[in-house]
Structure formats: C-alpha cells, structure tokens
Amino acid sequence: MVLDVDDLQALVDETIGKYDRIDAVVSNMGHGGSVPEAIKTVGFDPEFDGPLLELTDELWHESLEMYVLNVVRFARIVTPIMIEQGGGAFVNISSMNTIEPRAPYPMSMLRAALHSFSKLYGDRYARHNIRMNNLLPGFCENVNLSEFARNSIPNSAPSYL
User: Fold this and answer.
1) Which of 52, 59, 93, 129 counts the most CB atoms within 10 A of its CB?
2) Which residue, among 28, 25, 29, has the nearest Cα to 15 in the 3D structure?
3) Which domains does the chain have, with CATH numbers?
C-alpha cells in the first residue's frame, strides 16, 4: 500500500533489481471509503452545505497521508537513486481543486499542500536533473458526480481540433 514505507521500499527494491534504475514515479492517489456520506457526491453545486468543522481529526490525518505524505515518503526513497543515476521525474496526478478548494470536498485543500511540496522539491532537486510536476485534471466520471458537475464535463472535442 502506498501509505506504508516498507511497501514503498519493497517496490523500489524490486524495480531496481529488475531494471537497475528508476526514471519516473507517477503518484495517483484518491480518497478511500472513509469519506463521509455527505461528501460522496462531488460537484460545484452552489447551494452545497456540507460538513467542514464536523470532519474528524482522523479523516484530516488520513487525507494528509493520502494526498501529501505518500509523495514525500516515495521521494525520500527514490531521490537518492535518481541523483546517482543523473536525473528522473515525479508526476503527481492531483486535482483541479489544487487551485480552488471546493466546499463539497473540504479535504481538497490538501492538494494545495502537495502543490507546494512539489514546488519546493522541484526548486531543490532541479540541479540534479530531477523534476516534480503535478497534473490537475478536472472532473472524471470515476466518482459519484452531481448532475451539475457531470454536465460541466465537455462531451466532444472543440471544433478547431
């Protein structure tokens, strides 16, 4: 599991054993089943009045682990390898909520923490030819979307393509 340092180390060890290097790490972490029922449907609905102060400390800590600390831990393990081999890249699949947290999903504010870590990491390790970037996709139909959110997903390519 991506939250366990021993599992991350085992993955790195197996990869190095097979390929002798790690050129790229892709982190794509969403939230698990402990999300409160009130926020299981995601959207921009302007009238949403969901929990914020009612969310437990455990949920906040779990979210921090999933969105930020798993990337930090993996970077601690892989960065020395990338330095030794002359470079590499980290790509974090994050969320459009990085820039603008959404009331229906308050833990989205932690995406900004990942964004900040990635910036600091990139500034620090660019001299070793290592970069860290975040992709910020919009809504995908992989979660329960409100009708408002579902209708905001473009259903065809722009005419100029």
Assistant:
1) 59
2) 25
3) 1-11+22-31+56-140 (3.40.50.720)
Kind plus residue range of the DSSP H or E element containing 155: none
First-to-last CA distance in the chain?
A: 40
For the stretch 35-58, pLDDT in tens is 555 555 555 555 666 677 887 888
Tokens of 127: 């001299």
Q: Rounding to the nearest 10 degrees, give the CA dihedral for residues 6, 11, 12, 15.
A: 160
**The model's pTM:** 0.80
**Exposure of 81 by Cβ count < 10 A (0-12 exposed, 13-18 middle, 19+ buried)?**
middle
Q: Please name the amino acid found at residue 44.
A: F
41 bridge partner residues: 144
